[in-house]
Amino acid sequence: MRRFFGWVLKVLILIVVGLISFLTAMRFAIHGREASVPNLIGLPPVQAEQVALSNGLQISREDRFYSSVIPIGRIMSQEPQAGTKVRRGWRVRVAESLGPQRVTIPNVVGDSERAAELNLQRRGLEIGSVATISAPELPTDQVVAQSPPPDAQGIISPKVSLLYNAPTAAEKNLMMPDFVGAKLAEATVAVTDAGLKVGNVRTITPAVPAAPVAPAAPAGKAAAKPKPVPTEAFVVAQSPAAGSKVTTGAIVNFDIVRK
């Protein structure tokens, strides 16, 4: 019996030793697949990539920011931070410095979305988020707000976000017709049919040469009847101009003459 218990004890000791060896091997295997994130701040992107690869890691350049401390073209931030333990092959996200802010933020409020984008890109700026609202009281198809504001200083990112006012679902974009030369009555009907509204109608008095004085009628003869006053109105100018982009419900103003 004593011999049996001695044999069982030896087996248990072997099992415990085996478990300890297994756990130790697993620990070394796990730590062998780990890497410590190096400090990449201040390095040029090419050198930062080489340092990351030598530690079994990769880098991903995801953004650019202005910095008065880190020289232009060097790494200014990283995630994860230096010293963090990660798996080998892990991708370290880094941001590149643009140096101090030198670009002027333009005013793009009132521009179309496309015109605003071109204006920003010409200055080396990027488009941030673009939000859309439908506000009937504001001009449609235009940028109505921007962030950061024009001429802003001390900004961090070279991105400008835009707020764009688009037509509501009930509105429809129209091309303003040309009413110049048309009779006012006909132009009024056409404006209404197009879903527009007639606004101010201003009568323009054209310059005319002085009429010659008619000779007095001979005695015994009736005086000549005066010519009738012209009553037909014709459009000579309009606002908005022909070809302008408007929406339903827009107001059209006319200048007219009577012939």
Side-by-side strand order of the widest sheet = 2-5-3
The CATH topology of the largest domain: Trypsin Inhibitor V, Chain A
CATH-scheme architecture of the largest domain: 2-Layer Sandwich
Task: Please give the largest β-sheet.
Answer: 3 strands, mixed
Helix/sheet category: alpha/beta
CATH class of the largest domain: Alpha Beta
Topology record:
Elements: H1 2-32, E1 34-36, H2 45-54, E2 58-65, E3 75-79, E4 85-87, E5 91-97, H3 113-122, E6 126-133, E7 142-147, E8 159-165, E9 173-175, H4 184-193, E10 197-203, E11 233-239, E12 245-247, E13 251-258
Parallel strand pairs: 2-5, 6-8, 10-13
Antiparallel strand pairs: 1-4, 3-5, 7-8, 9-12, 11-13
What does this structure look like?
The protein is α/β, with parallel strands linked by helices and 259 residues long. The chain has helices at 2-32, 45-54, 113-122, 184-193; strands at 34-36, 58-65, 75-79, 85-87, 91-97, 126-133, 142-147, 159-165, 173-175, 197-203, 233-239, 245-247, 251-258. The chain has three domains: 32-100, Trypsin Inhibitor V, Chain A (2-Layer Sandwich), CATH 3.30.10; 113-165, 2-Layer Sandwich (Trypsin Inhibitor V, Chain A), CATH 3.30.10; 173-206 and 229-258, Trypsin Inhibitor V, Chain A (2-Layer Sandwich). Helix content is 24%, strand content 29%. The strands form five sheets. Strands 2-5-3 form a three-stranded mixed sheet, covered by helices on one side. A three-stranded mixed sheet has the order 6-8-7, covered by helices on one side. A three-stranded mixed sheet has the order 10-13-11, with helices on one face.
